[in-house]
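Re: your question from the hallway

Yes, I did run it. Sequences:
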Amino acid sequence: MVRRTREEALATRETILDAAEQVFHDKGVAHASLEEIAQAAGCTRGAIYWHFKDKAELFDAMMDRVVLPVEAMLDRAGEAGVTDPLAILRLATIDILERTAKDPHLQRVFEIAYHKCEYTGDAAGVRDRHIASQSECQGTIEAGFRACVAQGYLPKSVNPKEAAIGAMSLVSGLIANWVLDPKSFSLAKHAAPLVDTYFRGLQSTPVVKAAPVMKVVKATPPAKVLPSRRKTA
Amino acid sequence: MVRRTREEALATRETILDAAEQVFHDKGVAHASLEEIAQAAGCTRGAIYWHFKDKAELFDAMMDRVVLPVEAMLDRAGEAGVTDPLAILRLATIDILERTAKDPHLQRVFEIAYHKCEYTGDAAGVRDRHIASQSECQGTIEAGFRACVAQGYLPKSVNPKEAAIGAMSLVSGLIANWVLDPKSFSLAKHAAPLVDTYFRGLQSTPVVKAAPVMKVVKATPPAKVLPSRRKTA
DNA sequence: ATTGACATACATACGCGCCTGTATGTAAAT
DNA sequence: ATTTACATACAGGCGCGTATGTATGTCAAT
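Structure:
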């Protein structure tokens, strides 16, 4: 009755990860007990403690299983494209959104990461991991936009870092809002148009760049003082 | 030593809310115990249970204190503007971001809402509340964009709902990413340019709108079949 | 203006369930 | 025979909800 071969052990490990994904999604990470997860996996807590040190390590393993492939994909998109990096960025961005719209696995994990998990001090590893992941992704996209500017696909006035921040925020915001309430709108339908809208905005960036100019006027007279609305108390 | 007048009671209520905000932020909502909150507030759990039914109600009250004013502000922006609704939307959007960049109070609450709180089944009220809030906000913005299209501030080809989804996602994504790691970029500096980028994208929306056209050709020969990506399941 | 009765605004104490971590048992694989 | 891959058993703590205690504020009646 009990299974013991190496591959069977790996199978139960995967089963536990599946169960964790399910229970984390239903109850939230903090409120999920290892007993529930074991029950969902058809084993006991003993099996979980054999494969993982504690809940945090289980969570990490569960995330890795899904996030690592996605990150690898993004990296490949970043390194390969020398021809038309803008199109590559566009496709990669839309691809993530459409992939999310289709894959229930991705949906669950994104929902856990965005809405069922507390980035708190005790499990700081989780938070650091997310930050690092974001930061890396951010860097990749920024490099892409830099290439776009260098090769003339975007105006010189575009700030690559800023463009990357906007793109990341738009995409992560879309995913977070959609998984929170999937019936509020169709991610599949709006993904490409919205990304295109943002990219068109980048292409039409004006050439002002007024910031670095120093001392345009020595002393500005207080002509029309705007009504200050501070004091939120 | 003990305080009993009405206003003193209200004061301790506020103190408890402050403490809850602090502890929720530090430990996460699920991991925060009422004992910790009471200790931070300089009282006992008895006081908390006097003012609030349980942790969920305490959380709700804490959020209300900050969110309600913001929502009220948004509503005012939505109803008032008949002249140039696009400018009003732009200002309101940027205002929320800049206000967030300045107000530590808002920052903490946003960080709690986005990263320190599990939208799980047991406290479904929290999730529903967030969804309702988002939905209302979404509707307000959508109405604004609709007015923009009607008054010619945006092309007819702009889909107001889609535009609102994008705006909401961009803003919430920006806030979520920034509060997660405030030193990764300056929200105050990039807020206005990024919003403007998105709005420029909307203004330059092409006039395709191919969807509503019916039966252009009776039977389309499969000349070049695009890879269909429907099937959201 | 006192006084008593009642409500208010908490503090304290208790019981309970749940969950965690570990220690131990055990049968099959190697 | 030893290790693997779990299942079972045990001890402990923590946090929640509630019940109860209590000192003060409030207010009407006198």
